[in-house]
């Protein structure tokens, strides 16, 4: 029994250490340290660099744990929106949810953009985020997409671009817009697409 308790305690301590490392990594990203070194992460977690690498065998393993944290946190911010509601209500609810998630995701996305070409974990995380946005759009704006007929694919792609993180990043960082102003631009783009479609001559 004592041996079992000792093993359980060691496993629990190991999990607490791994959690502390991921929390330190995510905190640094939120503070704008987009490429923190192992030394900086370890110092923030209150451990040695050796302990960090004993718990995560390499950078890719650490990135996998950190992206899993961001994906879980993003999922917790998702709200269910009924496609049966009037379009104006669905639009406002979608924008509220999307802005919430984009603001939360922004630090991690900015960091991931630096390392994504070289990291399978970051590439997989991006694909999951893309799939989530596409699924949300298909669900929330299903009636409008169905009505688009053969132009559905273009409308889907246009809606995705209008509410994607790169677009949000341009509004917030390139143009320096505050959240409300950036949301207003996104609303204008999404509303025009839903009401008038992606324009003539597209298929």
Automatic annotation (TrEMBL):
The organism's place on the tree of life at top rank: Bacteria
UniProt-listed InterPro entries: Homeodomain-like_sf
Protein name listed in UniProt: TetR/AcrR family transcriptional regulator
Organism the protein comes from: Aeromicrobium yanjiei
Organism ancestry: Bacteria, Bacillati, Actinomycetota, Actinomycetes, Propionibacteriales
């Amino acid at each position: 029994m004592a041996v079992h308790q000792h093993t359980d305690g060691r496993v629990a301590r190991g999990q607490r250490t791994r959690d502390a490392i991921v929390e330190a990594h995510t905190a640094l990203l939120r503070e704008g340290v987009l490429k923190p070194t192992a030394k900086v992460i370890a110092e923030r977690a209150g451990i040695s660099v050796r302990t960090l690498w004993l718990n995560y065998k390499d950078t890719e393993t650490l990135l996998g744990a950190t992206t899993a944290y961001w994906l879980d946190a993003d999922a917790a911010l998702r709200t269910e929106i009924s496609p049966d509601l009037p379009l104006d209500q669905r639009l406002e609810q979608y924008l509220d949810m999307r802005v919430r998630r984009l603001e939360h995701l922004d630090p991690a996305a900015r960091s991931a953009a630096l390392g994504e070409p070289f990291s399978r974990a970051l590439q997989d995380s991006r694909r999951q985020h893309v799939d989530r946005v596409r699924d949300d759009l298909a669900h929330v704006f299903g009636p409008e997409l169905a009505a688009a007929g053969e132009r559905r694919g273009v409308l889907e792609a246009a809606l995705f671009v209008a509410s994607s993180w790169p677009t949000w990043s341009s509004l917030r960082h390139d143009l320096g817009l505050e959240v409300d102003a950036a949301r207003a631009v996104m609303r204008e783009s999404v509303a025009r697409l839903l009401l008038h479609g992606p324009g003539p001559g597209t298929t």
